[in-house]
């Protein structure tokens, strides 16, 4: 049974600091550069060396003696203060020795540097294959000893359970109770998972549970508010059913994916609500939209995903709606619904933004390539896509609570993370989360060969060249991993390779069973794997017998991604831990990245260059791609800031109204 103070901690949290502006933001940015200076890495290296120096002493201890020392370290760290800080290095040496004995892994010095960086509140950039799972475990033991909640956040349910179970012997030896929370768990199991010293979960699950807890307590997070509400209410304690144990420490694996890529949209708890009038309106708007022609009746702004009606289009809409009910005579109302139908046609494509499964529209996460069956688009857009696909319309949803991922992770007093690709987003991570990014050196030098991009004027030329490259490399016996941006692209390439009689494995949002096994086997001799961005994170690709002598894994990107980080993540699958490997991107001037984010004049110039020999234009193409990616990243950052500002605005409005339910 928990004390009243422990129960109150379940729902009470600190208020996040407001985002700085103007001169304050500039000064704060300089402070971020100070924390990222090279001397910080050197300090971590020296401390890791001290831990290494204690290895011989720790290895001489019996299991009983090691347990006793771990218990002493736990008590000292729980008490806090200066003495606790002095215990970190010898404690980490003992935890390292425990990992060697219980799970058979002896942390390298660079892994010790990573664990220290996490403990001190940094975001550690560590290359793929450097053992980040163990690094998180070492840091989580120190955090768990404080007896405050420690959440280890990763990218999917499979990794949540895998990492927690794999490290369980280490945690138990160190006196730490570990649990995990996945999407399929009922409330009782979720509460048990969060009651552990260290809890593994995904960002979507912890944010959803945080919002559900807020709904259960009806916004009364402060202990005094809850006490007053309990005294004045005849109902049971408003905290009954709360699952979280509070927020204190978060260690975020694949931090750029969780804190950057997933932060574009807030997480919303919604309930279905019958609205026959809206459903009928969406179906009528779909029929009217099918009468309109792009270029004549409306124009498409691909970069900002906007529809602009022309005068001819407005006249055609007015004519088409003349015989419809009175609702359609109001220009503003009908224009909104018809623009939504046109947006569903132009910007939401089967195999890219969504897939169809059992007469349902399943949203596909653009950055991970995974289906998200529990997520729907808001404000009628989901129903508009269903109408476009001639599916039965689902009930629209009503928002019960919402919170952005940025605002949620800013609630943790102690936040740290690690990833293989963070330096491109270092400024944003410091500005939003106060997370300084430092680069941990690799245990072995990377020997990956990154070949120049091959650039083509047309998509057909690009796909033909990719198939030729796959066949040529496959003839050498080297394994090949082909990364595509969408389900449609992966299926298209699969058809082309099948026509050539090439055997391959396909992994995308439609065919995602046995994901980990497919990716783990992608390094076997002669193996060809086609995958969306699902292959970018989580599971190591180890080379099969004799593959290193052939040149290692060859990675092919079928187009450049909107974020440079995602490209680096895919290329990082090759040449892990000093292995041999290579990577190359194939680019067409018609790729979505260049069409959306290059000015029309630059697009025409690039087409003219590519139509003339020689066709290899690394400098011109590289400049165009870099321009497009920077424009895309800037636009994505702007959207994320807008989401966070909306949370802050809602928080101020609801606080004025006396509610603490929505954004804190």
Short summary:
The protein is of the alpha/beta class. It is 49% helix and 14% strand.
Structure report:
The protein is an alpha/beta fold. The strands form five sheets. The chain has a seven-stranded parallel β-sheet with strand order 3-4-2-5-13-1-14, with helices on both faces. Residues 656-664 have low confidence and may be disordered. The protein is built from 27 helices and 21 strands. 49% of the residues lie in helices and 14% in strands. The chain folds into three domains: 19-268 and 405-439, Rossmann fold (3-Layer(aba) Sandwich); 274-395, SecA, preprotein cross-linking domain (Pre-protein croslinking domain of SecA); 449-637, P-loop containing nucleotide triphosphate hydrolases (Rossmann fold), CATH 3.40.50.300.
List keywords for this structure.
single chain; 664 residues; alpha/beta; Rossmann fold; Pre-protein croslinking domain of SecA; 3 domains; 7-stranded parallel β-sheet; 27 helices; disordered C terminus
